[in-house]
Each structure stands twice: as structure tokens, then as C-alpha cells.
Specification:
Number of domains of chain A: 1
CATH topology of chain A: ABC transporter involved in vitamin B12 uptake, BtuC
Radius of gyration of chain B: 19 Å
Largest sheet of chain A: 2 strands, antiparallel
Distance between the termini of chain B: 54 Å
Helix content of chain A: over 70%
CATH topology of chain B: ABC transporter involved in vitamin B12 uptake, BtuC
Number of strands of chain B: 2
CATH class of chain B: Mainly Alpha
Largest sheet of chain B: 2 strands, antiparallel
Number of domains of chain B: 1
Shape of chain A: globular
Order of helices and strands of chain B: HHHHEEHHHHHHHH
Number of helices of chain B: 12
Shape of chain B: globular
Helix content of chain B: over 70%
Strand order of the largest sheet of chain A: 1-4
CATH class of chain A: Mainly Alpha
Radius of gyration of chain A: 21 Å
Number of strands of chain A: 4
Oligomer: heterodimer
Distance between the termini of chain A: 10 Å
CATH architecture of chain B: Orthogonal Bundle
Structural class of chain B: mainly alpha
Order of helices and strands of chain A: HHHHHHHEEEHHHHEHHHHH
Largest interface: A-B, 43 and 46 residues
Strand content of chain B: under 5%
Strand order of the largest sheet of chain B: 1-2
Chain lengths: ~350, ~290
């Protein structure tokens, strides 16, 4: 158990971590992540890239929904804007991908200002449904503005090269994504401990009280939308690089609900929770597939006919079970474990 | 003029379906504060159950509904008891997420039992065209509009005059105070789920009779969100009316503005309405103490 842990300055209170051990573990994790592509197969690398993109998106959404308390069901829309901007600039205008990806983030951020304006008047689920409406409208525009977006045909994304390295392939894409994950997580952790982050938390706890304390609601709510959507837009651009083909079906409404599921299951308001949730839900379908591979005869007709339904049911059951066990989400489970071991062998 | 009347008529039909589904949402939201993301799946599942009852017993519409509604209510009670009741007192977010999980489960179960192929389901309603004035209707369309009228009236009477309905409004107004005066909040929640499932079954059967019975029926749940929001999340009667409004607006957009605008016109309307009235047309405004 740690004792004698005194904070003497305000700076120490908001430090990311006061423990060298935590920094040590973080460094070890980073080294492991850098080394990972050499230790595992190509398929696993692809899975990890998907999981890391989900982490980026979840950290972005968490800033809006977890930290500022503005529930958004429009994530599919922002992802689509990021992905389409990246794809259009790369393929139709010949931009290099390292310029078009941030442009995707900027485009999503600009759109988010329009989506954010209703948030100044609406609360809770009314806001959630309004963002859902915007996501519907964005999808619609993409589908019908054929001159710009190629409509229902979608866009093939290729040739993301820099110094002769193809950044859409295995290891290169992995390191690109890993780099963005590290930057995003650090940026998010640091924003949370500035005035902006504290203002967002005050708005989440009670927006009228926050305004009374001198927080400009218009500015900070819109800022939350802009920052969060920039990150989500980058995640969208990464998706377009990874799957190599953007089409409106990729960004169905259900994706917004899944995004919300990630941060709620992980633990609302916590960046570590968003990361845990994203990793968990990205690997869950794979884990379920392996699990049924062990027990079910893959050739039995029942299993092959209903494989997606069986996995879907298992997915739902796991979500419900975790929330029943720990309504605070995975981060609550992690805190329990940590407390148990730091107090061990005492109970408290 | 005929074109206009026809648009209004078909708008009323699809609007009645939205209104019924939205009533189910509003009933659960009003008494439990939870948006039930599994509402669309409940509509789908109860419609499939009704389909099986209809093919097994070959019933006509009224006996079929007399059989379907109680079964749906039992289903609603069971879902509430298994999935929602254990979460009582937990954060609202967690409960909403449980309904998302429930939605995924119900979708999988429905497809596993009935398969992915669509069915033609008449629900024992004749398919001969009837003329109301100069506008042709299928009987199933009239049943749908009538069902919305009957259920709205029943809902109003229930919430206004019955003991349970008044208890439900008390829980909606203040859950703690309702507990203190001796209302069983658990029973109110269970009742809300049961009635919501009953409304879902009426919506599901009549929607399937009008269009088709297919595993994408659950998506109607999401498409009914504009109606729920326009009416105000906690207004059962308001969401029924808003359903009709959205249905008519969608059809007018489709008829006069452009084919593709149908799907988003409802959402455009709610954004505009919410900017003026942030709690929907009939929703109750939160008065906060800071």
C-alpha cells in the first residue's frame, strides 16, 4: 500500500501520474506495441489496427459524451465525413495522404460546429436524437451528391505512399495508427487537466452552475464538439485507408450506437475506460468466433447457417452481463482489481 | 388535388405506424426515464410471434390480436424482469446500454427462429381496396389508422382515470416521492414494459400486414425517433399525434420536393422544431434548481 503520498503544489495535483511505476508500465506497453507486428501474424496485425482505430474514435467520443456530458449519436456521420474527405482529396484531387488525413479531421470539425449549435439549447436524449438526425442527413447528402462523393458507387482508396512506403499495408499502417493513438491519448489526457478540461467537466456536472461560475457555455460546448469531431474525423480517415473502399454502408447508424456502447461499457468519462472498451468490443467478435470454434462443429448446418446470429446474441449477452456485473463499466472492474491488490492481504 | 389527398392518405398510414411505435417508446421513457433501444426489436419479434400464431391457427384479425396482445405483454414483463429490473437504481446510461444489448439479442433470436427471408403476412385482413371518399385504401391501412386512434384514446383514459395510470404519472413526475407515498415503482415499470410490448405488437402486426414481414422491421424503431422527439419524449399522446405529422410531412416532401428527401425530412423537421421548443411539442419542460 502506498503511504506518505503528499501533494504540495497544484501542479502535482494535476500531474498525469506521480508514480514512476506507472510511467514505467506505460513505456513497457509502448515498447510491446512497437514490437508487436514482429511477434504476431498479419491477420492479428489487421485486427489490432481496427482496434486502435476504435480507440481513437472512442477517445474522441469520450471527450464529448464522457467529459462534457453531451450525448452524441452522430459518430457515424463524423466518421463518414472524415473518411470521405480523405478519400475524395486523395483520389480525386491527388493530395498526399499525410495532408488529406488532417483535412478529414478539419472537415469533421467544421461540420460539428453546425451539429453543435443545437447543443446550446438541447439536453440529454433530445440532443442525442438531434445528432442522430444530423448523421442521417450527412449520410443522405453523401448518397445524393454524386458529383462530389460518387454517391452509391463509393470510392476506392489506394496509393497512400510516402518515401516509397505504402501506408495501407500491414506494418506501415500499424505504425501510422499507433503513432496517432499515442498522440491522441496524450493530447486527451493533457486537455483534461487544463482549464478547458475542467470547464467541460463542470458543464457535464451542471451546465447552469458552470455558467454561473463564469464558463462560457457557447464557447466550451462548441469547442468540445470541434475537438472531439476532429479526432473522430481522423479515425474516419484511417478507416478509409484500412478498408480501402469507402461506401455509405460502412457508416450505418448502428455504428453510432456501437461507439456509444464502447465508451459506456468501458466506463464513461475515463480515457482509460474508452481505451479498454474499444479494445474489448473490437476483439469480442473475434473471441466469440474462437470460442464457438472450440465447441461447435464448424460443419454442422445449424452453425453455418446462423453463425452471425449466434455471434450477435453472444455479443449482446456479454454487454448485458458486464453492465449487470459492473454498471460503471470495465474501468470499474479494473479499479476494483487494483484496490484489491494494493490492499492485499487486507480487505480494506 | 387528388395527388395531394393521396399523399395525405398514405402519409396518415405510415404516420400511424410511426405514432404507434413512438407511443411504445414514450410509455417506457415516461415511467422509467430510459429510452428503450429495443423497441423496434420488440415490434419485430411480436409481429413474428403473431405470424406464427396466424399460420398455426388460421385466425382472423380480431381473435389473432386477442391472442397476440396478451402474449406480447407476457414477453414485455419477462424482458423487464430479466434484463431491466436487476438494473434498478443503476446509472441511466447503463440501463440504456442494456436495452442496446437486448436489441442485439432479440434481433439474433428472431432471425434464428424464423430465418432471414421475408414473409407475406395479411394478419387475417382482406386485401380488397376500399374507397373513402375518392381515396383508395387497403383495409390494413385503415386498421392501422384506427388502431392508432383506439390506442391513443385508451392511453389517455388509462393515464388519466385508472389507478395504475395515475401511479405511472406520479412515478414520472418524481420517483422518490412516488415511492414515499407507497407506489410500487417496480410494478409501475413492469406495467410500462407490458403495455409498451402490447402497443409494439399492434404496431408490428399492422405494419407487417401493410408492407411485409422481414427481419429489417426493427429499423422502423430508429425511424420513429423523429415522432418520439417531436411529440416530446415523455408524452404518450403527443408522440401518437407527432407520428401522424411526421408521416404526412414525409409524404409531402416525397411528392413535391424529391424522392430521396423522404427519409430525412422528418429529421429536418425535428431539428427545426427542437430549436424553437427544446422539449418537443408536448413534452414537459424540466425546471431545474441549481
Amino acid at each position: 500500500m502506498r503511504t506518505g503520498n503528499f501533494k504540495e503544489t497544484a501542479g502535482q495535483l494535476v500531474a498525469l501520474s506521480d508514480s514512476k511505476v506507472v510511467w514505467g508500465w506505460a513505456a513497457a506497453l509502448l515498447v510491446l506495441m512497437v514490437a508487436a507486428p514482429f511477434l504476431i501474424g498479419n491477420y492479428q496485425v489487421t485486427l489490432m489496427v481496427s482496434a486502435m482505430i476504435a480507440v481513437i474514435g472512442a477517445v474522441g467520443l469520450n471527450m464529448l459524451t464522457g467529459t462534457t456530458g453531451l450525448i452524441s449519436l452522430g459518430q457515424a456521420g463524423f466518421l463518414a465525413v472524415g473518411a470521405y474527405t480523405n478519400a475524395i482529396l486523395m483520389m480525386d484531387y491527388g493530395w498526399p495522404f499525410w495532408l488529406s488525413m488532417p483535412a478529414g479531421g478539419v472537415a469533421a470539425a467544421i461540420i460539428s460546429i453546425f451539429v453543435g449549435v443545437p447543443s446550446l439549447r438541447l439536453k440529454g436524449l433530445y440532443l442525442a436524437i438531434t445528432t442522430l438526425a444530423f448523421s442521417f442527413i450527412i449520410n443522405h447528402i453523401i448518397l445524393y451528391a454524386e458529383g462530389l462523393t460518387h454517391g452509391p458507387n463509393g470510392i476506392f482508396v489506394s496509393n497512400a505512399k510516402l518515401f516509397g512506403i505504402d501506408f495501407q499495408r500491414g506494418k506501415a499502417l500499424y505504425y501510422l495508427t499507433l503513432g496517432i493513438v499515442v498522440i491522441t491519448v496524450f493530447a486527451a489526457l493533457n486537455i483534461q487537466r487544463t482549464r478547458i478540461g475542467r470547464a467541460w467537466m463542470a458543464i457535464r456536472d451542471h451546465d447552469i452552475a458552470a455558467r454561473v461560475m463564469g464558463i462560457d457555455l457557447v464557447r466550451y460546448k462548441l469547442l468540445a464538439f470541434v475537438v472531439s469531431s476532429f479526432i473522430v474525423g481522423i479515425a474516419g480517415a484511417l478507416i478509409s485507408l484500412q478498408i480501402r473502399f469507402v461506401n455509405i454502408d460502412v457508416f450505418a447508424l448502428i455504428l453510432s450506437i456501437e461507439a456509444l456502447a464502447i465508451i459506456i461499457l468501458g466506463g464513461l468519462g475515463s480515457i482509460a475506460g474508452a481505451i479498454l472498451g474499444a479494445i474489448f468490443l473490437s476483439f469480442l467478435p473475434e473471441a466469440i468466433r474462437l470460442f464457438f470454434g472450440l465447441f461447435a462443429d464448424p460443419n454442422s448446418s445449424f452453425y453455418t447457417t446462423y453463425v452471425y446470429e449466434i455471434r450477435g446474441i453472444a455479443y449482446g449477452v456479454v454487454i448485458v452481463a458486464i453492465l449487470r456485473l459492473k454498471p460503471e463499466g470495465l474501468i470499474g472492474l479494473w479499479r476494483d482489481i487494483r484496490k484489491y491488490w494494493s490492499n492485499w492481504p487486507l480487505a480494506y | 388535388m387528388d395527388f395531394f389527398l393521396l399523399l395525405i392518405a398514405t402519409g396518415l398510414v405510415s404516420g400511424a405506424a410511426y405514432g404507434l411505435i413512438a407511443m411504445g417508446f414514450a410509455l417506457i421513457y415516461k415511467s422509467t426515464g430510459v429510452v428503450n433501444f429495443a423497441q423496434g426489436e420488440m415490434v419485430m419479434l411480436t409481429a413474428y410471434i403473431s405470424y406464427s400464431l396466424s399460420t398455426t391457427f388460421g385466425l382472423s384479425f380480431v381473435p389473432l390480436m386477442l391472442l397476440t396482445i396478451p402474449i406480447s405483454m407476457l414477453l414485455g414483463l419477462a424482458l423487464e424482469r430479466i434484463f431491466i429490473r436487476p438494473m434498478l437504481g443503476e446509472p441511466i446510461f447503463a440501463i440504456v446500454m442494456v436495452t442496446v444489448g437486448l436489441a442485439v439479442i432479440l434481433r439474433g433470436v428472431t432471425i434464428m427462429i424464423w430465418g432471414p427471408d421475408p414473409f407475406n403476412f395479411t394478419a387475417g385482413i382482406s386485401t380488397e381496396v376500399v374507397y373513402v371518399g375518392s381515396v383508395p385504401f387497403y383495409p390494413a391501412q385503415l386498421y392501422l389508422i384506427a388502431a392508432l386512434g383506439v390506442l391513443t384514446l385508451a392511453g389517455w383514459i388509462f393515464l388519466r382515470f385508472t389507478r395504475m395510470g395515475i401511479a405511472m404519472r406520479a412515478v414520472a413526475a418524481n420517483e422518490t416521492a412516488a415511492l414515499l407515498v407507497g407506489i410500487s415503482v417496480k410494478r409501475v415499470h413492469a406495467t410500462a414494459w407490458a403495455f409498451s410490448a402490447a402497443i409494439a405488437s399492434v404496431a408490428g402486426v399492422l405494419f407487417a400486414a401493410n408492407f411485409k414481414l422481414a427481419p429489417d422491421l426493427w429499423f422502423q424503431g430508429l425511424k420513429s425517433f423523429p415522432a418520439v422527439i417531436l411529440g416530446g419524449l415523455d408524452s404518450v399522446i403527443g408522440s401518437a399525434a407527432a407520428g401522424l405529422v411526421i408521416g404526412i410531412i414525409e409524404n409531402l416532401f416525397q411528392g413535391y420536393v424529391g424522392q430521396g428527401l423522404r427519409e430525412i425530412s422528418g429529421f429536418i423537421v425535428i431539428i427545426i422544431v427542437l430549436m424553437v421548443r427544446p422539449y418537443g411539442l408536448f413534452g414537459s419542460k424540466d425546471i431545474e434548481r441549481v
